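Dear support,

I submitted the protein below through the web form. The confirmation email said the job was done, but the results page showed an empty box. After a refresh the structure appeared. I'm attaching both so you can tell me whether what I see now is the final result or a partial one.
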Amino acid sequence: MDFRKRKVRDDPEINLIPFIDVLLVILIFLMVTTTYSKYTELQVTLPVAHADMMPERPNELYIAIDAAGNYAINNHRIVYENPAQLAREMRIAAPEGKDARDPIVVIAADGSAPHQRVVNVMEAARLAGLERLTFATQSEAGG
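What the results page shows now:
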């Protein structure tokens, strides 16, 4: 006969409180020592139009801007001085007649043209009272 008392063993437990304390200290350390980078430029992919070309409309004012930033209104090159001068040129070149009451300004800027040149055309259109603007695009296949 075995009269010895058997010892009841407790199930082992893992104490998580010190582990959580250590993780919080590490988290605070990482938050304090992290450096944040600021990007000076954004990677922008411009959209490509997937529509058929619109038929020619007689009440369009076509403004072209080449890669060097030169302007042409209805395929006539002009010298840019300021938005007010460009607005005068736009009013002169605007189509005349009964359908030309509110011409559409079509801005066709080269992909390499400075953005400020496009903004200059938009400002000149505002000064000239031309409220309808659109941008010319090319199809994905090019051309």
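Response: this is the final, complete result; the empty box was a page-load delay. Helices lie at 17-33, 83-93, 115-128.
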